[in-house]
C-alpha cells in the first residue's frame, strides 16, 4: 500500500503525463522527476486558492517553465480556478493551460516563465519585495509579512547569465526568504549535461553567499526533502539552494534520458507507469478521493491561517492607523491621493537641463510621497541620477550600508538580472512601482526580461539615460541606434522620449499610474531647453502639436526628445524662407496610438508632408512620417555637439531636408500615414 | 633611480593620463592601476606591430574597454600604426582613438569592447578558435599555432551574466590558452564594490574549473605578476584567472576612489603624479628614449620570432602540402574553390520541408567541404538541427566526448555567451565562419553581442529556428513578435527569412561569403513547400518577384519566410475574384537595399498598392509596403495551424485584406514607398 504522500505524488505525475499526452505536445520529464519535491513543498506552503493574491502567501515560481504540466496539476489538485477540463485543453489556443505558465492567464501562476533563467531572477525580486515590505510595515509586536518564495529551476536556468546575476545579488542581499530547488537531473536538451555544464554548482552558489543543502534522492526520499526545507528556513542571512538529485522522467521507460524531456510519453509507457502506481492503466486524469481530501485539508488549514492574518491586519490598523491605512491603500492598488501634485512643472523661463536631471527632480519629488515607488541602478547611479536625495539603500542591516526598508537598490552591473528582478518586485504585489536605471543602450542586455515585463503586464519603469549619440565621447558601443525601434515594436510597452521637464513629468505620471504595461523612459545626458507649449497634459496624449506654424502648414516636423527643440529651431529657419511648419512632439508612440482617431488625425492631418527627426534608426517611423531625418549607421566617438553637426541634426541641416521634402511633395496628393485600408 | 621597467610603466601611465586630459573626457583610473600588469604581460607577449594580423600572435583583449587610454598608449609605445598625435585626438570625431576600443578603427585592437562582459567572452572565443586551429593543423613535428589570449577585466565584467556564461564554458572546455587578469580594485561606478558585489570571485572561478592565482600587490610587484603569468602558462587543462589586487588611479591624489574612474584628473594631480615618476611635470605625452628603445627591442625579438614561424610554415607546406595549402588559403581569406556547388537546389517537385531542416541540409552539404565552417547550438541541437552528420564535437579529448579539432560546439543554454564567443572566434582570423543555433526569440538574450557583431563587422551566423507563432504550443514566451524589427533596425546586419530550400541555400551563400557583416537566418519549425520561381540567384538579391500576376497587377503581396507560400495561395484566391497580384519574396531587407534603384523599383513599382504579409510586428514594414498584415500583440499557445487561422494568416484572410487594400487605393495616386525626398 502506498502512503497517502506517495499516492498524492503519483496523482500529480499522472495528471501531468495525461495532460502532455492529450496535447500530444509538452514536457513530461521534469514533472515526473519533480512531483515529490513539489508535493512536499506545497504541503507546507501558506496560500489560499480562493484568494490567490493574498499578500502574505508563500510564492512558488517554476523557473523551468516547460515543466508547467506539474504546476497546472498542483493548481487543479489544490482547487485553484483550474479543472481537469483545463488540463485536457493543455497547450490549446485560448486555454488556461498554455505551453508555458502565464501569470495573466491562470490564477496561481505567480510569474510568466519559460525563457530560462528568468524565473529564479523573478524569485529574487519577489524576495526583495517581501523583505522591503516586511521591514517597512512589520512592528515588533505585529508581523504582517513573513512569507517565503520557493522556486524550482533546472540546469538550463543555471547556465543562463541572468540567473547568475540575480543569484549573486541575492547572496549579497542575504535573502533568507528565498529557497531554490535545483533539479539536478544531469540532462538537458543536448543530452548529458557533461557535454557543456560541468561546473561545480554548489561551490558556485556558496561563492555567491548562499546556503547549499543536498538531497541525494529527490525521487523518493520525502523526508530528506522536508528536512531540507526545514533547514533552509533556519537560515538567517542566506538564500538557500537545495540540490535535488532526481531522475528526469522518473518511472518512465525512458527515464534518465533526454528523450523524455520534450516529447509526450508513448501510450504503453504511460500504462506501465500507472500500473506501477497502482492506478488503472486505462484511466486518465485520475484523482483518488483520498488525495483530493488530503489537499483539501491543507487548504482548509491555510484558509484558517489567512483568517488569522486578517485579524492581525485589523489589529494592526487599530494600533498603527497611519501605517495600516497605507498598507490597505497599497493592497487596494491605489496611489496616495494627490500624488501627482508633486510632479515638477516648468516654463520656458526655467533653465535648460538634461532630461536625466529632470528625471532626478521627479524622483526627488516623489520620494517620501509614494512609499511603493522604489528603484535602483545597474551601477550607474551618478550617471542615471536615480537615487533620491536622503534615501536609504536597500541593504542587509549587518552591512552598515542601509536597511531592508531602504528604497534604493544597488543592482551592480547586472542589467538583465535587474530587469528580471524588477518583474519579480512587481509580481509581489502591494502596488510596487519599481524602476531601474542604466544607459538606454544597455537596456538591450535585458531584452529577455523586458519583453516578459510587457507580456506579463508588469508596470516596471526603465530609467534609460544617455539615450543617443548625444552621450558623446563614449562612442558607438554606447550609442543606441536600433534600440527605440526594438522597444517600440514590443507590444504593450510605453517607450517615452521626453523633450523637456514637463514631458519628463508626464512620462513618470503615466508610468506610475500604469497597472498593465511597463515603460522605458529614454533620457538625455545633454541639456535641453524648457519648451514653449509643452505641458504635462499635452504630453500625456503621447503626441501633440507643440508649435502651430499655421492652420495649414507647408510641412510638419515630428520629433522626440532632444530633437524637438532642434526641430523648433528648424521651423524658425524655415519661416525665414517663407515656409510654415508645425512641430509635433511625439514622446510615446504607445500612448499616442491609444488616442482617438480624430485627435491623432488633427496632429498628423492629410495634405501636409511630414518629416520625422530622431537621432537614430528611421526604422518604423514611416508609420507617422513620409520622410525621415535619422541615423541608419552606428554612431561615433566625439563631442556631442560635433556629432550632432556631423550627422546633420542642426536646425539648418533639418530645414534643408524640410525644403527638399516640401519640394518633393509639391503637386502630389499627400495622405496622412495614419489612414489605413483595414 | 627607477628601473627601466618602472620608467616604462610611468610612461604608459603618463600617456594615458595626458590623453584623457587632452580630451577632457575618459577614464584615467584603470590605466593607472593596470599599467604595471600591462607592461609585464606585453613584455612577454608574441606579436608584431608591423603585421598585426599575424595568425600566431598572442592576443590581448581589454574587456574593461573604458580603460582604452591604456591600450592606446601601449600601441603607441610598441609602434603600431598609432602615434602621439592620435593620442592627442583621444575621443574626438573620426580619430583612431575612440572612447572605447574599436577593432575596425585601430590596428592592434583585437576586438571592440566597452559593453561590459563582452571582452572576456570574446577572449573565450579566441581561445576556442586557437585550440581548434592548432588541433586541426599542428603536427607532431611542426607546431603552427600555440598562441595565448590575455584579457584584462574589471568588477563590472565579472558582474555581467555574459561573462559568467562564457567563463563556465571556458572551464568546461579546459582552455588553458586563456589567461585573464581580474583588476580587483574594489571600486565600481557606484563606489565601493561592497554595495553590490561581495561574492567570492576566486571560489566562483574555481567552481567553473579555472585555475586561480593571486597577486596581492598589482601596483608595484612586477615579479609577482610575471610569476603569475609563468604559472598560468604551466596549466595544462584549465584557463587561469589572475586576481590582481590594484589601486584604482594609483598615485593620483584621488587613488582608491570612484572619483578617479570616469573623469579626467585635475591639472595639479597630473603634475604631482609626473613629479613622483621623476618626469617634468609640465611635459605632456613624454616618452623617454630608453623606454622607446626598450620596447623596440621586444618588437625586434618578436619580429625574429615571426620570421622563424614563417620558416616553419614554409617547411610545413613542403611536408604537408594539402594541409599547408589549406592553411594558406584560410590565411588569405579565401573560401575553398567551388564550395557553392555543394549548396542544395530544389524544384517545386521536391517535398515540403521546414526551413530548419533545409538549413540542416546545407550544413550537412558544407561539412567537410569548408573546414572553417564551424558552429554549435545553445543546447537546442535537436531542434535547431545544427549538427552535421558525422561531425565531431569540439571537446577536451580527456572527456571522451570529442576532440579539439571537432567542429561542433556544445554551448549549453548560454545564448549571450554564445554570441560573444562567436565574435571571438571570428576575431581570431583564419577565415572562421562560425554559426550558433537557438530559437529566434532567444537571439534577443544575446542582443548585446549581436549589435557588437554588426559594429565590429564579424561575419558570424545565427541559425535562428522556430521563427514565429508557427512554433505553436510553446506559446508567446517563445514566439518572436518584435524580433525581426529589432534586428532589421541594427545597421550592417543581414536578417534572412527564407521561404524555401533555394532561399535557405542563398542565405547561407551570402552569410558565408560575407567578410564584413553578421547574418541572422530565421527558420521555421513547420514544413513549407518548395516554391515555383525561387532560385538561389533570385534570393541573393534580397527580394524579387516570385509570382508575376501581370505586368501591371492590381496589388503586390510582399512576404517573407512561411508567409510567402500563403501569399501565393492568396494571389490564387484573388485571381478567382478577377484581381491580379504579384507576389514578392523579400528574404533580406539588408541585401535588397543594396540592389540598384532600378531593380528595386521594378520589384516595388509606382502605381500599385503593396500589402506586406508577415506573422509578426508590422513595425518597419511601411518602408516597403502601404498596408500590412501582421501581429501587433503577443502570440499564443496552440497548434500552429490554429494560430495561423486565429491571427488571419490564411490565403482567404489575406485575400480579403488585399481586396480592402485594392478598394482603399482605388482612384488614388499610389507611389512606391522606395521613393524619397532626399
From TrEMBL, chains A, B:
The record marks 27, 261 as: Important for catalytic activity. One of its GO terms (molecular function) is transketolase activity. Keywords: Calcium, Magnesium, Metal-binding, Thiamine pyrophosphate, Transferase. InterPro entries: THDP-binding, Transketo_C/PFOR_II, Transketolase-like_C_2, Transketolase-like_Pyr-bd, Transketolase_bac-like, Transketolase_BS, Transketolase_CS, Transketolase_fam. One of its GO terms (cellular component) is nucleus. One of its GO terms (biological process) is pentose-phosphate shunt. It holds the Pfam family Transketolase_N. Thiamine diphosphate binds at residues 66, 114-116, 156, 185, 261, 442. Its EC number is 2.2.1.1. Homodimer. Catalyzes the transfer of a two-carbon ketol group from a ketose donor to an aldose acceptor, via a covalent intermediate with the cofactor thiamine pyrophosphate. This is Transketolase. It comes from Candida maltosa (strain Xu316). The lineage of its organism: Eukaryota, Fungi, Dikarya, Ascomycota, Saccharomycotina.
Amino acid at each position: 500500500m502506498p502512503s497517502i504522500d506517495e499516492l498524492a505524488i503519483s496523482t500529480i505525475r499522472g495528471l501531468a503525463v495525461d495532460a502532455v499526452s492529450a496535447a500530444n505536445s509538452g514536457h513530461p520529464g521534469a514533472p515526473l522527476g519533480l512531483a515529490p519535491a513539489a508535493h512536499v513543498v506545497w504541503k507546507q506552503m501558506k496560500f489560499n486558492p480562493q484568494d490567490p493574491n493574498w499578500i502574505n502567501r508563500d510564492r512558488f515560481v517554476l523557473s523551468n517553465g516547460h515543466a508547467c504540466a506539474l504546476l497546472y496539476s498542483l493548481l487543479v489538485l489544490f482547487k485553484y480556478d483550474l479543472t481537469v477540463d483545463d488540463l485536457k485543453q493543455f497547450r490549446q489556443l485560448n486555454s488556461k493551460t498554455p505551453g508555458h505558465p502565464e501569470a495573466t492567464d491562470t490564477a496561481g501562476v505567480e510569474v510568466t516563465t519559460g525563457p530560462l533563467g528568468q524565473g529564479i531572477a523573478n524569485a529574487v525580486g519577489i524576495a526583495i519585495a517581501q523583505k522591503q515590505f516586511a521591514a517597512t510595515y512589520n512592528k515588533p509586536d505585529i508581523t504582517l509579512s513573513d512569507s517565503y518564495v520557493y522556486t524550482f529551476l533546472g540546469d538550463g536556468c543555471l547556465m543562463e547569465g541572468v540567473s547568475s546575476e540575480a543569484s549573486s545579488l541575492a547572496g549579497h542581499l542575504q535573502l533568507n526568504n528565498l529557497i531554490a530547488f535545483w533539479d539536478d537531473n544531469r540532462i538537458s536538451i543536448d543530452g548529458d549535461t557533461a557535454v557543456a555544464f560541468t561546473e561545480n554548482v554548489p561551490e558556485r552558489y556558496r561563492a555567491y553567499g548562499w546556503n547549499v543543502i543536498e538531497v541525494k534522492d529527490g525521487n523518493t526520499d520525502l523526508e530528506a526533502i522536508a528536512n531540507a526545507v526545514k533547514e533552509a528556513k533556519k537560515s538567517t542571512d542566506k538564500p538557500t539552494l537545495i540540490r535535488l538529485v532526481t531522475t528526469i522522467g522518473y518511472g518512465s521507460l525512458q527515464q534518465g534520458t533526454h528523450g523524455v524531456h520534450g516529447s509526450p510519453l508513448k501510450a504503453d509507457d504511460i500504462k506501465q507507469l500507472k500500473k506501477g502506481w497502482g492506478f488503472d492503466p486505462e484511466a486518465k486524469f485520475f484523482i483518488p478521493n483520498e488525495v483530493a481530501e488530503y489537499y483539501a485539508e491543507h487548504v482548509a488549514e491555510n484558509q484558517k491561517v489567512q483568517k488569522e492574518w486578517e485579524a492581525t491586519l485589523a489589529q494592526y490598523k487599530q494600533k498603527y492607523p497611519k501605517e495600516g491605512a497605507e498598507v490597505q491603500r497599497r493592497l487596494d492598488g491605489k496611489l496616495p491621493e494627490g500624488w501627482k501634485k508633486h510632479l515638477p512643472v516648468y516654463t520656458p523661463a526655467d533653465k535648460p537641463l538634461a532630461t536625466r536631471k529632470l528625471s532626478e527632480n521627479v524622483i526627488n519629488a516623489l520620494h517620501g510621497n509614494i512609499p511603493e515607488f522604489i528603484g535602483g541602478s545597474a551601477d550607474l547611479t551618478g550617471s542615471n541620477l536615480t537615487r533620491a536625495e536622503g534615501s536609504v539603500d536597500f541593504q542587509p542591516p549587518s552591512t552598515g550600508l542601509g536597511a531592508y526598508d531602504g528604497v534604493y537598490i544597488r543592482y551592480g552591473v547586472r542589467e538583465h538580472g535587474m530587469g528580471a528582478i524588477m518583474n519579480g518586485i512587481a509580481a509581489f504585489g502591494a502596488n510596487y512601482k519599481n524602476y531601474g536605471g542604466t544607459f538606454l543602450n544597455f537596456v538591450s542586455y535585458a531584452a529577455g526580461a523586458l519583453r516578459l515585463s510587457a507580456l506579463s503586464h508588469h508596470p516596471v519603469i526603465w530609467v534609460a539615460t544617455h539615450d543617443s549619440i548625444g552621450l558623446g565621447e563614449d562612442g558607438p558601443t554606447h550609442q543606441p541606434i536600433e534600440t527605440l525601434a526594438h522597444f517600440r515594436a514590443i507590444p504593450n510597452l510605453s517607450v517615452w522620449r521626453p523633450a523637456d521637464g514637463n514631458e519628463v513629468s508626464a512620462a513618470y505620471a503615466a508610468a506610475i499610474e500604469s497597472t498593465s504595461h511597463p515603460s522605458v523612459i529614454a533620457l538625455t545626458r545633454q541639456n535641453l531647453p524648457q519648451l514653449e507649449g509643452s505641458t504635462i497634459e499635452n504630453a500625456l496624449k503621447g503626441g501633440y502639436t507643440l508649435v502651430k506654424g499655421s492652420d495649414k502648414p507647408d510641412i510638419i516636423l515630428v520629433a522626440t526628445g532632444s530633437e524637438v527643440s532642434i526641430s523648433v529651431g528648424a521651423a524658425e529657419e524655415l519661416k525665414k524662407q517663407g515656409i510654415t511648419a508645425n512641430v509635433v512632439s511625439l514622446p510615446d508612440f504607445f500612448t499616442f496610438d491609444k488616442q482617438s482617431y480624430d485627435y491623432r488625425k488633427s496632429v498628423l492631418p492629410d495634405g501636409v508632408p511630414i518629416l520625422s527627426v530622431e537621432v537614430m534608426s528611421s526604422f518604423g517611423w514611416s508609420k507617422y512620417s513620409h520622410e525621415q531625418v535619422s541615423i541608419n549607421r552606428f554612431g561615433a566617438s566625439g563631442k556631442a555637439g560635433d556629432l550632432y553637426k556631423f550627422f546633420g541634426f542642426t536646425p539648418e541641416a533639418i530645414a534643408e531636408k524640410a525644403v527638399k521634402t516640401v519640394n518633393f511633395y509639391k503637386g502630389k496628393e499627400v495622405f496622412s500615414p495614419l489612414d489605413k485600408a483595414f
